[in-house]
Amino acid sequence: MTETKKQKLSKPKKTLVLNAFTNGTLYSQIPGIWRHPNDKTSTHTELSYWTQLAKTAERGKLNSIFIADTLTYFDVYKGPNNPGPSLEVGINAPKLDPSIPISAMASVTESIGFGITFSTVSEHPYLLARRLATLDHLTQGRLGWNIVASYLPSVGRQLLNGGELLAHEDRYAQTQEYLEIVYKLLLSSWREDALIKDKSRGVYVDSSRVRNIEHDGKFFKLNGASITSIIPQGFPVIIQAGTSKQGKEFAAKNAEIIFVGSGNNLSQSGESIKEIRQLAQNYGRDPYSIKFLVSAAPILGKTHQEAIDKWEDYSSYANPEGSQIMFSSQSGINLDKYEWDEPFGQEVGKNNASIGLTKNTLNSTTKTTSRRKIFENSKEYTKLLVGTGEEVANIIEEWVELYDIDGFNFSQSVFPESLEDIVEILIPELQKRGLFWYDYPVPNGTFRENLYQQKDHSFLPKDHPGYQYRWTKDESREDFENKLKDEGIL
Ligand SMILES: Cc1cc2nc3c(=O)[nH]c(=O)nc-3n(C[C@H](O)[C@H](O)[C@H](O)COP(=O)(O)O)c2cc1C
């Protein structure tokens, strides 16, 4: 046996982190699929859509349902400020506030987590801290927060008093400050044993164990105590997905789960993983405590031919405008100005949009890229994982080995069919290979306990910057405040 083969065999396999990816809209990897007879994404306005999603994903023992959110319209294409194309194709609109169905999903499940996107421009950090606390309480510790800074110009116009988003670099500075306020509210305002419920004295909360947070920063000011009690996980699992230079720094410092790209830009994703693990190490964190996920959209069949037939059927519903609408908003470039084969690469990176998402779609910012290439990329993406459970698992296993990937966000093409296929065809094959668990390691546990496969691991790990904000039951107020002063937090 060769040395590399021996090394490969002796390396323990990773237990993958697997999510079902969705959005508060008629979400599919294939824009226009809502016309397919089996597709039920247009029922996302009914609670049963969400409870079915949750039950199916938990049947497959997935780590979490991840819910993306971008708040406002994709309206750069044929714009600016034109919601028409997005509404007609049914892409990213109409849309719901996706945090609301989480309670309903939690009520029909026991162990699956819920990763939800909240932007740091959507509301004051005090309100978001209360919202996160509410959701972590009601799910009994199954919440994750995907921290985004927003990139759509429509967010500026519609949410920021008609103004503009901060410049890209400042968005991350604002986001770091926002996160620190939420750390303070959820971890430093209440001592972890403040809620005493002492019936004999008639005292519900020991108020000497609750302190005001005084924050006077560049972007926010706040003075007062958190209104919510300590939550089951202390702090939700932290998720992040920006892969610009600033995005990588922010993620390396704070995130526990990081989304780096997708199946059609794997070598770029592999480079990001390597770079962010190194950055995390520079911040004193265990680089392998961070789980890196890439997006993938498997289309599965019981036979190879069945999978191919499904792909051909699904892709015949793809509306080519969809990829143009999406990319225009992510890149900030109105593709409608260009002919189908006209290069537009010279415009890439010259505005305030998402750097990471633009790079992910283009794979490289070549000057020769065109609208046709954008459409072809989106089609190629749906073709990457088409096959039987065995065939798709072979590819996944190879990607994991080659690029040091820890898991996947599985998007669906047709709902609920694609998710059912993942659960019934792909998951059993991954289980058979030792790449996925047969059951949650901590049934009824928290999101973080299952993420790290360890009971009583509900709080952030010791080497995480959020750890030092926690007011533990052994610390007097004075000792705690002195500690915060020493650490430069107070
Ligand atoms: C899998 C994945 C999911 C994402 N989900 C969201 C989302 O829900 N909302 C959002 O505003 N941005 C989302 N993004 C975009 C990034 O979080 C980030 O905000 C954006 O790329 C801008 O940051 P950057 O310029 O540092 O890349 C997602 C990116 C990826 C790869």
UniProtKB/TrEMBL annotation:
<comment type="similarity">
    <text>Belongs to the NtaA/SnaA/DszA monooxygenase family.</text>
</comment>
<dbReference type="GO" id="GO:0016705">
    <property type="term" value="F:oxidoreductase activity, acting on paired donors, with incorporation or reduction of molecular oxygen"/>
</dbReference>
<dbReference type="InterPro" id="IPR051260">
    <property type="entry name" value="Diverse_substr_monoxygenases"/>
</dbReference>
<keyword id="KW-0560">Oxidoreductase</keyword>
<dbReference type="Pfam" id="PF00296">
    <property type="entry name" value="Bac_luciferase"/>
</dbReference>
<dbReference type="InterPro" id="IPR011251">
    <property type="entry name" value="Luciferase-like_dom"/>
</dbReference>
<keyword id="KW-0503">Monooxygenase</keyword>
<feature type="domain" description="Luciferase-like">
    <location>
        <begin position="38"/>
        <end position="402"/>
    </location>
</feature>
<keyword id="KW-0288">FMN</keyword>
<dbReference type="InterPro" id="IPR036661">
    <property type="entry name" value="Luciferase-like_sf"/>
</dbReference>
<keyword id="KW-0285">Flavoprotein</keyword>
<dbReference type="InterPro" id="IPR016215">
    <property type="entry name" value="NTA_MOA"/>
</dbReference>
<protein>
    <submittedName>
        <fullName>Dibenzothiophene desulfurization enzyme A</fullName>
    </submittedName>
</protein>
<dbReference type="GO" id="GO:0004497">
    <property type="term" value="F:monooxygenase activity"/>
</dbReference>
